[in-house]
Design brief:
43% of the residues lie in helices and 10% in strands. It is mostly helical and 98 residues long. Strands 1-2 form a two-stranded antiparallel ribbon. Strands 3-4 form a two-stranded antiparallel sheet. Strand 3 and strand 4 form a beta hairpin. The N and C termini lie far apart (34 Å).
């Protein structure tokens, strides 16, 4: 990962230190809209901002790793092959998974 960039805990994308504060509320709103459109059995709990260590020299790296793990936890595994997908993409994948 590039230095100075922060990872969104919702979508896992990288943003600049100033942009992340603008992106996260918009990303969470988009997440709610998409989650509400899913069938009830695929809906997920709202992602929470992860708690990262508050001391040490690698503070940004630890925060980014915690945010990345939080974003990855939002993915759902395919019952047949085990690959992980966003819920809206999982149904598309399952139609062709052998």
């Amino acid at each position: 990962r590039r230095p100075g960039f922060r990872v969104c805990y919702i979508c896992g994308r990288e943003f600049g230190s100033q942009s992340i504060s603008i992106h996260e509320p918009q990303c969470l709103e988009k997440w709610h809209i998409e989650n509400d459109q899913l069938p009830k059995h695929l809906r997920r709990a709202e992602p929470r901002r992860p708690e990262a260590p508050t001391h040490g020299s690698c503070l940004t790296a630890a925060e980014n790793e915690a945010a990345y793990q939080s974003a990855q936890a939002q993915l759902l595994p395919c019952e047949k092959c085990g690959r992980t997908f966003l819920p809206d993409r999982l149904t598309v994948h399952q139609r062709s998974c052998k």
